[in-house]
Structures are given as C-alpha cells and as structure tokens.
C-alpha cells in the first residue's frame, strides 16, 4: 500500500477574498511493479548466451567469496522434460532426474549443494591424451611462400624483390597494387651517371621479373593481378590437353560470357561444340579463384548447445546440456563462520558477508531458473515442430512467440530473450531456438505454411530441375500453387535470394 500526502485547497465564503489554503491528508491505494535487484539479475541472465553466462559467473566467483564452483565430486544431474500431453501437462514438465539435495535459496541450509552438472571435468592428474588428434601447425601464406623462396637458386637481390612482393599480397593471394605504385616505396639513390627515369624503368623491369618468379610458386595463381590472370596461371600449370587449350581461350576472351551462361556466343566465337565447351567449363570450375584463402586465419566461433533433443519411446524429449550448466554452491567455510557469528550475536559485524551470502543465493537460484525456463520453452517448441525433426525443413510449421508464451505462461518478451543465442542440438544439427519461428504463407485450404518450409521446397525444386531448362521464379510460384501454397513470384524471388540460388539465366547449363 502506498500512502500519498496531498494538499487540498478550498474557497471559504464570507472570509477574506484571498484564497485560503488548507492542508489535509489523503490516502490512495495503488499497485506498481518494482524491479528488485534479484528480478533484474534474473532478466539479465536470461538474455545472456551460454558463453556470456560463463563470463558473468567467473566475474561473480572473483567478487564473492561466498560463491564457489564445484569442480570435482558428484557428476551432477541432467534434467529432462517429457513431451506435454492434453491430459497432464504438469506431469509432462516434471524433471525425471532430481539432484540428491535441493538448495533452498531462501534458507541457510543446504550450503553445499551444487547447481547443474554434466559429466564433470577431467582430473588434472589424468595424463590420458587423444594421440590421434594431432593438428598440423597453422602456416600463413607469407610463411608458405618465403619457405619456398629460400629453396630457390635466385640471387640475393632477386630474392629480396620477390619477398617484397610477397609482403604486398592480400589475403586472397592477389597483388592488388600495380607495380609502378609499389615502385614508389623504394628509396632511389641519386646517381649522376644514371637519370632517375632510367633507374625507375630498370627497377620496374626487375620487379616484373620478380613477379614472374613469385607466380611460379605454390599455390598456383598466387601473385595474379586479377581473377582472369589467376585462372590463366592455374591453367598454365596443368598438363597440355584440348580441354586446357579451349579453357585458356574462354578465360582470355569470354570469361564474362561464361559467367552469364551465354554459351551460344562462346561456341560461335571459338567454333566448338557443346561437349568440348562443357569439358572446358568443368576444368575452369575446378580452379580456385582465391588461392591464398586456404592460408587465411579463420575466426572460429564455437556454439555451446543449451539443450539437446532425442526421440524416446516415439516422443521427442528435450534434455539440458549438463556440460553447459555451471556447478555452483555456497562456500562452506565462510558460511559456517557467518552462522557462528549469528549464533553469538555478532551478525552486525558481518554485514558484508551477509550481503554476499544473499547475492550468492540469488545467483544460484536465478541460474537454475534460467535453465529451467530454457528447458520448458525448448520442449514447447519441440512439441510443435515434431514434423521438422522427423522430416526436415519441408515439414516446418508456422510458429509465433505468442503461441509459445501462452503455452508456458510467460510473456512474449521473455520468450524472445530465451530463444536468442540459445541453441538446441538435434539429430538434424544445431539450431538457434529462433530458427523454429517464422512467418507464414496462406494455403488454398485455409491453412498456413511456414516460410522455412517454402524455402526448403524451392531448394528441392531447383536441385531437381533440368539444367538446360531451369525453372523461372514464375514457374516455381506455379508449382507451389499446384501444391496448395499461394505465393507470389516476387516472394519466390526473395526466398531464392535468401537461399543464395542464382537467377534462372545463371543456372542454365549446356
């Protein structure tokens, strides 16, 4: 209840013409939602990814001595939710495996209980290693080329020029800058006997020779100035054959026509038949237009699935990933010290520890609640997307956040937080929970089809089309209409672009 104090003014007749103010108390009842620190922490943890959650917990472990991670001991537990049924949804959502001891976040008991589990970390004293998993040392394109350069019989001056060009290559292995621009980086000494222009011309010729040495190194095509030169260098490195000769002519004269699938113009210009051009095209397609990309450092990002799903007794059942769940508990030593001081009446001097104890309780409870919510939402999604798990993308059904929110009795904003950067591991792969939601398209029977299912159908139709007569967007829309899915041509074009499928003229083959 909130008590509001207000001021009430009134005109008193028969008195001074000036208005007199009279003070009075006024009571008013109102309801409001207060975001307590515990609720704020719960919302924040819910929207974090698993990697971000681990970083948050690591920071809490450093700041709070009352909180600790259970590194060894019991392997923990894994929670499972059975698929919901119309008869008893509450029973279906009950975890099948319970921990040996529940932690009560609102009491001082059970301070030794850990949260989460999995299979537990490996003992650091265990010297067992996977001898079969030996990774080759990563090597950059620069190191790869310089190691070959060191084995050549070039003079020191020429070797330095080649090494200079190696440093100028981009990540794809191309020499993007013209040689005359690179020449400006050389400090030319003044020689009264040689004019500066002659000196530049001589050095430019030497750079040209050095470039040819570079282009003879592995990988083939390195040091090219453009894609056409890159493909040509790779073709020249192959054994002579009729296919290579025709491929060289196509690359030199008709590379743009080849990209546009204008085979008629190529055949007319080079006087070749369909079979010869097809063999030359296959040879060109086998080349690598980015020879240096294989040596580029990859920005590897790991995804830790929060939930896994598997089929049990004919039903798809979600299970929390124990390895993703942190194992937390209250530090027994500090908790016992705090409890003894409470018993002796010295609680006032332990205010800081008391506050940290409460924060540790909140964190353990909120982390547990976070994973419980993720599990409930994941199971609700899986119950509605059984067709996808059984048959793939073509069986994906339309699904909205509101539908799941009503099922698990949560707000749509909470469902949005739960499904963002949370991943589900299934026999069909690892998917973000957001993947299972999508817009819908009406069908002629009055139902709806998921946009994901429509994209899967378009992909199937294109993969099975006749390469000589590929399907246009209009024809794809007609075929979908024959299957009862009403979709416009521009919608088909949008979905095709999302699938990175080229337009009809670029899909035509010989």
Helix count from the secondary structure assignment: 20
Strand order of the largest sheet: 4-6-5-8-9
Structural class: alpha+beta
Over the alpha carbons, how many angstroms does the gyration radius reach?
35 Å
Overview of the molecule:
This protein has 510 residues and is α+β, with helices and mostly antiparallel strands. It has three domains: 44-119 and 304-431, no CATH class; 141-295, no CATH class; 440-506, Orthogonal Bundle (Arc Repressor Mutant, subunit A), CATH 1.10.10.60. 44% of the residues lie in helices and 8% in strands. The protein is built from 20 helices and eleven strands. The protein has helices at residues 37-46, 50-63, 89-92, 141-149, 156-167, 179-183, 196-215, 227-236, 242-253, 255-259, 263-270, 274-285, 332-343, 351-384, 386-391, 401-408, 412-419, 451-463, 473-482, 489-498; strands spanning 7-9, 21-23, 67-69, 80-81, 307-312, 315-320, 328-330, 423-426, 429-432, 440-442, 448-450. The protein has a five-stranded mixed sheet with strand order 4-6-5-8-9, with helices on one face. Strands 1-2 form a two-stranded antiparallel sheet. The chain has a two-stranded antiparallel sheet with strand order 3-7. Strand 8 (423-426) and strand 9 form a beta hairpin. Helix 14 (351-384) crosses helix 16 (401-408). The longest helix is centred in the C-terminal third of the chain and has 34 residues, at 351-384.
